[in-house]
Design goal:
Elements: H1 2-9, H2 17-42, H3 53-73, H4 80-101, H5 111-124, H6 126-131, H7 134-148, E1 160-162, E2 166-168, H8 172-176, H9 198-216, H10 230-236, H11 239-257
Antiparallel strand pairs: 1-2
């Protein structure tokens, strides 16, 4: 029960260099992705790479890294419930702004919505997260992520399990009901933008929270805590503001460039 006692009493406040750097790099990659998305969808500029299957995989990898680190950070926060409510509120704010500015690009449940709800779930179930051994939690939620990864693809393509081994297709009614989209059961006739449902992405957040135990308890190699690329580290400390502001700035810049179109 040593990990449980540490989790109850230890709350480090110092920055972890590598986490900030990776998060900063990931948010920059996201800005580049949204720039290309805006070019293609709003200004009809052909970006061939945008439709490559491997590019979607790269996007999900960087999004997963960002979510994983957000889970790590929960181990350092004194009030995850407050952070979660604030994050979800910002996600809803973006939903309404985008609905007004670009009605065809609705964000029903984006990454901020998912992170906000994940922080709230973590805050309400923190005793469970503190009780489970970190290595067991990492393995459990890592396996769950891959088992649930295909759920949001809809009926009949969405399934639980591992292709070629064992799979289960959720009932079609779960997708058609129209209210379960936060959990990954997206309605087939609704177009979702920036869609990060709790299934499977909460699993990455939860896995990150267990890895955060090692980071918080100084159990990782010393180089993990040092800052090497200050630009990425500084960017990683302000990801929420970059996320909120980058899309309006991109649209404003592109409007100037394509004002005669």
């Amino acid at each position: 029960m040593q990990w449980y006692e540490r989790a109850k009493h230890m709350r480090e406040t110092k920055r972890i260099g590598l986490l900030d750097e990776i998060r900063g790099f990931a948010i920059i990659c996201m800005v580049v992705y949204h720039f290309m998305f805006s070019l293609n969808n709003f200004y009809e500029v052909d970006v061939p790479i945008f439709f490559e299957d491997w590019f979607d995989i790269i996007r999900n990898i960087f999004a997963g890294i960002f979510i994983f680190i957000s889970g790590c950070v929960c181990r350092f926060s004194r009030n995850n419930l407050k952070r979660g409510i604030q994050c979800f509120f910002l996600g809803m704010l973006i939903t309404y702004i985008v609905a007004f500015a670009q009605p065809s690009y609705m964000i029903h449940f984006g990454i901020l919505h998912m992170l906000g709800i994940s922080m709230i779930i973590y805050a309400l179930t923190e005793r469970f997260f503190d009780f489970v051994p970190p290595i067991a939690g990492l393995i459990l939620f890592g396996v769950l992520f891959f088992a649930l990864y295909n759920v949001p693809y809809g009926n009949p393509d969405g399934y639980i399990g591992f292709n070629g081994l064992i799979t289960y297709n959720p009932p079609e009614i779960m997708y058609n009901t129209g209210v379960l989209f936060p959990f990954g059961f997206s309605h087939p006739q609704t177009k979702y933008a920036d869609y990060f449902p709790l299934i499977p992405w909460f699993c990455i957040f939860a896995a990150g929270s267990f890895f955060g135990v090692y980071a918080r308890d100084n159990a990782l190699p010393r180089w993990f805590y040092k800052t090497r690329v200050r630009f990425f580290a500084a960017t990683g400390r302000y990801t929420i503001w970059i996320y909120l502001l980058h899309q309006p700035i991109i649209i404003a810049v592109l409007n100037l460039i394509f004002k005669d179109r």
